[in-house]
Design brief:
The chain is mostly beta strands and 67 residues long. It is built from no helices and 5 strands. Strand 3 and strand 4 form a beta hairpin. The chain is globular. It starts with 11 loop residues before the first strand and ends with a strand.
Length: 67
C-alpha cells in the first residue's frame, strides 16, 4: 500500500513532485514495477503513462500518492 511506500505494478498514482522530471508533477500515471525498487533505480519507482510528451520517470515513494 502507498501508506508504507509500497506500490504494485499497475497502481494509478498522482505524482506530487518528481525530481527526475519536474514537468510530471501534478499529473497521474501508472507504476510499472512489479517488485519494490532496488539499488539500480536508487529506490525509485518507475511511473509511465503520464503524457505523450513525458517519458517514464523515476520517483521516490514520498513523491507519489496512490489514487
Amino acid at each position: 500500500m502507498a501508506s508504507d511506500g509500497q506500490f504494485r505494478g499497475g497502481d494509478k498514482v498522482l505524482i506530487v513532485s518528481c525530481e527526475d522530471d519536474p514537468r510530471a508533477a501534478g499529473k497521474t500515471g501508472r507504476v510499472l514495477d512489479e517488485v519494490p525498487p532496488g539499488p539500480l533505480t536508487n529506490g525509485r519507482w518507475t511511473v509511465d503513462r503520464i503524457s505523450w510528451l513525458i517519458a517514464p520517470v523515476l520517483c521516490h515513494a514520498h513523491e507519489l500518492r496512490k489514487i
